[in-house]
Write a structure and sequence with these properties.
The chain is an all-alpha fold and 216 residues long. The protein contains 9 helices and no strands.
């Protein structure tokens, strides 16, 4: 398992290092200058999607044929992708939160927004990876783009709308309602985390079966 993770991390650092550095630099500067937290939401959502792109490199290098000769199971091969996705998303969320706090626009509601976008990133990969393994990188590219844009931008818009509604509630002096909405948001995040974990496990199971059939 460690070797599989090392392989994927090496692919990401060699192939996407420039993209990741540009993403951090561009969004980081924009967040600090404009003090707009929604940019941190976008960066969080996009961060983990790079992991799914490593499947393209595996396909080009005929990695599956080589992996079949190794003492690893299909479940371990797929698990390395899913673990790396979760880890990469967590790093992106932590970095986004740090930038928001550094810009002086941090708060509980922004932390919840970043957490929600991290869930979106994880669920996006949960959709992307089974589709990519089933149809291949080239054929599934259209599906991937539609899913990414619909989920990522939809989540960022929804997070921004929630924050604006909370800000309006505070501005008219509705502190009790704000506290109630915040408690409701925390409860919703807790439920969504559980749902995300369940859906992620289901996606892993499906992806493992797809990959096992592909090897045969």
């Amino acid at each position: 398992m460690k070797g599989l993770l090392y392989k994927d991390v090496s692919i990401m650092t060699r192939s996407f290092k420039g993209n990741i550095l540009l993403l951090v630099a561009l969004y980081g500067v924009l967040i600090l200058v404009t003090k707009e937290a929604y940019l941190a939401y976008a960066m969080t959502a996009v961060w983990g999607i790079y992991v799914a792109s490593t499947i393209n490199y595996d396909e080009q290098a005929h990695w599956d044929a080589y992996a079949a000769t190794l003492p690893v199971t299909p479940g371990q091969v797929i698990a390395s992708k899913y673990l790396l996705c979760a880890a990469s998303t967590a790093i992106g969320a932590a970095l986004s939160l740090a930038l928001v706090l550094l810009a002086g626009v941090g708060g509980a509601e922004y932390t919840l927004g970043i957490l929600a976008c991290a869930e979106v990133s994880v669920l996006t990969n949960a959709l992307l990876m089974p589709i990519t393994y089933r149809f291949g990188a080239a054929k599934s590219r259209a599906y991937l783009m539609i899913i990414v844009f619909a989920i990522v931008f939809g989540a960022c818009f929804a997070a921004q709308e929630v924050l604006q509604s909370q800000s309006q509630a505070v501005s008219v002096g509705m502190d009790a309602m704000f506290r109630s909405e915040t408690a409701l948001a925390v409860a919703a995040i807790a439920v969504s985390l559980l749902a995300t974990a369940i859906l992620y496990a289901i996606s892993y199971t499906i992806c493992t079966r797809v990959y096992a059939k592909k090897e045969k």
